[in-house]
Specification:
XdhC family protein; 330 residues; MoCofactor_Util/Proc; XdhC_CoxI; six-stranded parallel sheet; alpha/beta; XdhC_Rossmann_dom; 11 helices
Length: 330
């Protein structure tokens, strides 16, 4: 199970190490609806092979023809910015969604050693920033950077790589396993808490850490911030409540718990009476957890929870982007 970021970096290294040349594409800005947010990456090899996507397929053919048409890797700026959908005619031509326009940075000579360092950071769930300058095309890595996942100004852009989003799942049941698998593909660093020995047996996801700690202890150790989510799916109040009573006091991006509307009301009453949670803290609880899509099976419920996590995450990203300095160049 790998997220898009890891797959693109691994493929870039495989192509470069085999002696091929490849251009690294990074989404810089989107205006209107967009299938790929700023910072998303894709690759185009010197023979036109494409890996990943920057637009869901709308502009990749034009970029492929430019890159594979000859001469792209032999001269010119190391970083080139391409804009699509600026005019009405272009938006109709590229069929960008909802009248969107798109800007993409194209790097013709990404450094293999740097991409390897990024890949190791992603696999270790360690944040690492990559800063790219437009003037000379230079790129550098840093252990710290802006708070937003992507920032651009007139000099260049910065992208945070590695696990920015973390998810703590309480419960290694069938639902917990499905949710863990989906969340990993959404670039969450996932940890599963399961103090019940019978549920820890034969854990099928070797890349997802499984902890036997009690939920309240693990929530506190998880050091929740606004990029962390906690979802309780054991359906055992003794365990779920232990996680919720701590998570709802912390600045988590998302806190949710499995259960019906009636169960949620009873849970909130318990948390208020026995653990002293305030109405404001209880209002942060997503319960019943997940989007209302008519889900019934564990796999369907996992999809509904993952969708709600994405909605919450997207709202936070939009807020962070609004606060960050941006250079809007068409």
């Amino acid at each position: 199970m790998r997220g898009n970021e890891e797959e693109v970096l691994a493929q870039a290294l495989a192509w470069l190490e085999s002696g091929r040349r490849a251009a690294l594409l990074t989404v810089l800005g989107t205006y209107g609806a967009s299938p790929r947010p700023p910072g998303s990456m894709a690759l185009i090899r010197d023979d036109g092979a494409i890996f990943g996507s920057v637009s869901g397929g709308c502009v990749e053919d034009d970029l492929r023809r430019e890159i594979a048409g000859g001469g792209f890797f032999d001269g010119g700026p190391a970083v080139r910015v391409r804009s699509f959908g600026v005019s009405v005619e272009e938006r109709q031509r590229y069929r960008l969604p909802c009248g969107n326009s798109l800007r993409v940075a194209v790097e013709c000579a990404p450094d293999a050693a740097q991409l390897e360092a990024l890949l190791q950071a992603v696999r270790a769930r360690r944040p690492l920033w990559r800063h790219v300058r437009y003037g000379d095309g230079s790129a550098s890595l840093a252990e710290s950077g802006p708070d937003a996942a992507f920032v651009e100004d007139e000099k260049g852009f910065s992208v945070r790589h590695g696990a920015r989003w973390r998810l703590l799942i309480i419960g290694a049941s069938e639902l917990g396993r499905y949710l863990a698998q989906i969340a990993v593909t959404l670039d969450y660093a996932v940890t599963v808490c399961e103090p019940r020995e019978e549920y820890r047996q034969d854990w099928p996801l070797p890349d997802v850490p499984l902890s036997a700690e009690m939920p309240d202890d693990l929530v506190l150790a998880f050091a929740c911030d606004r990029y962390a989510a906690v979802v309780a799916v054991t359906h055992d109040p003794k365990l779920d409540d232990l996680a919720l009573m701590e998570a709802l006091k912390l600045p988590c991006q998302y806190v949710g718990a499995l259960g019906s509307a009636t169960t949620t009301l009873k849970r909130k009453a318990r948390l208020a009476e026995h653990f002293g949670l305030t109405p404001e803290q209880l209002d942060r609880l997503h319960g019943p957890v997940g989007l209302a899509i008519g889900s019934r099976t564990p796999a369907e419920i996992a999809v509904s929870i993952a969708a709600d996590l994405v909605a919450s995450r997207s709202a936070l990203q939009r807020a962070a982007a609004a606060e960050a300095p941006q250079a809007c160049r068409a």
